[in-house]
Amino acid sequence: MNDISVINRIAVGDIVRRSASRHPNKIAIIDGETRMTFSRLDEAANQFAHYLLKKGFEKGDRIVTISANSWQLIVAILGIQKAGLVWVPINPAVSLKEKNFIISDVKAKLIMVDKDFIQQADVMKKSCPNILYMGSQSSDQSSFEALLHGEDTLEPEVHIQDRDLAQIMYTSGTTGSPRGVAIPHVAVFISSLGNIVEMMIKKDDIVAVILPIFHCALHSVVMSFIHIGGTMVVFRQFEPASYLEAVKKEKITIMIGLPMMYRALLHVPTRTKKDTESLRYCVYAMAPMDEKTLKSGIEEFEAKFCLATGQTEMYPATVIFGPEYQLSKFGSYWGIPSLINDTAIMGEDGHILDKGEVGEIVHRGPNVMACYYNRPDETEQSRLYGWHHTGDLGYFDEDGLLVFVDRKKDMIKTGGENVASILVEQTLLLHEKIENAVVVGLPHAHWIEAITAFVIPKEGVNVTKNEIVTHCKEHLSAFQVPKEVIFVDKLPITATGKIRKNILREQYKTYYTEQTIT
């Protein structure tokens, strides 16, 4: 009897096999001196899948990776998923305590650690004794390449269905303890196709893989490029000057970066337009771009700019603020829903709100997570009224574009008014002497929550609290102006650039009880 689930299956591993069939000799990955074709990428992923299955791992087993960007990591991910196993990436920057929590939470059967994090392996062995080193272990070859040698290059026969888990990705912990987001094969598969259309990716495009692959945003882009047959240039870290050299050398056409990365590139003193003339499409993520940087980027790079947003629970990209709106709409615009999902604004009682009304941003579509791993109650809460709840507040403007207001938890309640922290942050970033800034509400006897700005000044400049407050008064209503400006050298961030406001709230929770500030 024919099995329809085999005939019409959707599986992440199928993506690379099909691209290898269509573009066998095309370069898929450039990583330093390594240049890997699609044919070799597929073969290596198959070899690793066979290695894992021979080691006795069974369908559904969890395999952890702790790694910076590398060709080895891409092969490992594809091999894990071709074998029907579940990929669990861990941000290398999180604490050992958090790493051990995740390893124990998923009951990991194997931990893969690259060369930069080997020293942590002994501690993690208490949570999972099986450790595989992905980096160089000898002078002549890497252990990862050695274990691939001799394994079958043909794809193993593993029964995979579209709702089987492909990966469990833990949230970045900006609000507290991490939660595992269980993501099925279909979510990754469909989102990778949506990105190709929304970001206008072509098979001849070359993308810079700068943001970490362990994060959902870049992983979805990696899968999009494998799907279309484009080329990926892998970076382990971002250094503006050397990055510009790579753009020029490899003729990179698409960049996915944080707003701060674009600002850094624009300020490289040796940069010329020739360095970036190959760029045609620049995607910024995590946050809107300030107007000055956006205008300079479009002019200097002569490329189209686009904001793509999403979240681990709703595999990105979920909402797109395309090039056609970049210089006509300014503020916290997220744009229009991706072609693969619905987006709406929901009121507290579950009804869908009209344009202009602020409520919670909700989604539904094939890119929704399967669940919060081991957290059934939180899973149920996240999908009330038949929609996925993001915890973000927003509204649709008169043209049908989504405008982000704030995270529910970051909305500051001060003196009887609600103030969106992001609005104050955007105002601060307009100041020419401010490099970065974040705003939180801190407990205050009179104001309930006092708007408090944490500011990093630009290097080599002097700026005072009075200058900043005056600037804010020129652009904001009186109740939105920060009650205090605290200068800092750095802000607590995740490896993907998100500022951890929960840490600032905790560190400074007694700030106003220890001083007389009104």
From TrEMBL:
This enzyme's EC code(s): 6.2.1.3
Keywords recorded for this protein, A-Z: Ligase, Membrane, Transmembrane, Transmembrane helix
AMP-dependent synthetase/ligase domain residues: 17-373
Organism annotation: Siminovitchia thermophila
Occurrences of domain AMP-binding enzyme C-terminal (ranges): 424-498
Pfam families named in the record: AMP-binding, AMP-binding_C
Listed GO MF terms: long-chain fatty acid-CoA ligase activity
Signal peptide: none
Record-annotated membrane-spanning stretches: 206-228
The protein's name: Long-chain acyl-CoA synthetase
Enzyme class, spelled out: ligase
